[in-house]
Specification:
Layout (H helix, E strand, L loop, with lengths): L1 H10 L8 H7 L6 E4 L2 E5 L7 H17 L1 H13 L2 H14 L1
Antiparallel strand pairs: 1-2
Helix pairs in contact: 1-3, 3-4, 3-5, 4-5
Length: 98
């Protein structure tokens, strides 16, 4: 209940985001790096997004991995290729896009 309320109140009007990717970026679910021709330019505006939404989606990802077998399988596949933290962030990003 607390997570849904936090997500709903921190998001506000969902119509102000043109796409799901813009909302995921606002919720700190994507990296803020910019690059030109595979050269990293830096992390512009790394903390200029909503930290409460980031927290809520990470917590929702924890619950989804624990209770949903499909999400657990997805996280397991990601964990075999990357760190567990990266896999959890991938789940949180998918939840934000949904």
């Amino acid at each position: 209940m607390c997570l849904t309320l936090t997500i709903a109140l921190e998001t506000g009007d969902i119509g102000r985001f043109p796409s799901a990717g813009h909302f995921a970026s606002y919720a700190r679910m994507v990296e803020s790096r910019r690059g030109i021709q595979r050269q990293e330019q830096g992390t512009a505006n790394a903390r200029c997004r909503n930290k409460h939404l980031s927290w809520a989606f990470i917590e929702a990802a924890h619950f989804a991995v624990r209770y949903d077998p499909t999400v657990k399988r997805f996280c397991g596949r990601k964990c075999s290729k990357a760190l567990a933290v990266v896999a959890l962030e991938a789940v949180a990003h998918k939840l934000a896009r949904v």
